[in-house]
Every structure is written in C-alpha cells, then in structure tokens.
C-alpha cells in the first residue's frame, strides 16, 4: 500500500518544537497570536473569571454540620426556619450534615446561621 503523506508533518513539527529555545517558542506564540487573532492567555483569563465568580457568590446554602448538645432547641429553630413538621425537622438535625435552606442571599444565610449557632448548632454556608 502507498503511504499517504499529510500536508503537515506533525512529528516533524513536534521534533522542531522540542529543539527550539524558549525565546524561539515565545516568538512563535506571538506570531500565531498575530496571524490568527487569538490569545494564548485565554485559558488563564477564563480560570480567573471563574474564581471571580466564586468570590462574588450571590446564592448561599445553609448547611447544618452538627446539631450540637442542645438538639431539641436546634430542632425547634430548624422547624421554624424550614416550615417543616417536627418529625422532618428532627430528621434533618439527626442526619447532619444536611442542607437546611438553599439559594439564599448572603444576609438571609448569615441570619439563619446566627439563629442556629445561637442554640448550639454548627453551621456552614456554601
């Protein structure tokens, strides 16, 4: 069978890149950026944007991580916060860690966290 030759010899390009100096590679990257109107820094910018998005979070979940020593008081607060019945509220406290409320603003989440911690619960905002 006859071997089909590609227009680009990938193995040769890789071999040439391995032999190139850092300065030559830097010049190559700049030339590719200019020729094709792209930026090699784009993945870094995307990662930075994702980190900024996480820092500027506007929706929080209140997670009960431990019911603490005064479980009865914590169950009452969970019942009031969630509107659940006594049995369901007890199930959330006994099943800790469990999410008590989802999608709250930062102020609402911190308010619920304070109420739960006031009666001895351990709470995490996610």
TrEMBL record:
Keyword Ribosomal protein on entry: yes
GO terms, molecular function: mRNA binding; structural constituent of ribosome
Taken from the UniProt entry, a GO cellular component term is: cytosolic large ribosomal subunit
> What job does the chain carry out?
Forms part of the ribosomal stalk which helps the ribosome interact with GTP-bound translation factors. Is thus essential for accurate translation.
Protein family: Belongs to the bacterial ribosomal protein bL12 family.
The entry describes its oligomerization and partners as: Homodimer. Part of the 50S ribosomal subunit; present in 4 copies per ribosome. Forms part of the ribosomal stalk which helps the ribosome interact with GTP-bound translation factors. Forms a pentameric L10(L12)2(L12)2 complex, where L10 forms an elongated spine to which 2 L12 dimers bind in a sequential fashion.
| Protein's name in the database | Large ribosomal subunit protein bL12
Q: What is the lineage of its organism?
A: Bacteria, Bacillati, Bacillota, Bacilli, Lactobacillales
């Amino acid at each position: 069978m006859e071997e089909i030759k590609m227009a680009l010899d990938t193995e040769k390009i890789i071999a040439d890149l391995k032999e190139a100096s850092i300065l030559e590679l830097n010049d190559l990257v700049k030339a590719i950026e200019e020729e094709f109107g792209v930026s090699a820094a784009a993945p870094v910018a995307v990662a930075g944007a994702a980190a900024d998005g996480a820092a500027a979070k506007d929706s929080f979940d209140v997670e009960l991580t431990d019911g603490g020593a005064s479980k009865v008081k914590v169950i009452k607060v969970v019942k009031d916060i969630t509107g659940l019945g006594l049995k369901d509220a007890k199930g959330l406290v006994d099943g800790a860690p469990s999410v008590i409320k989802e999608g709250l603003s930062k102020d609402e989440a911190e308010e619920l966290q304070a109420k739960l911690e006031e009666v001895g619960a351990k709470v995490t905002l996610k």
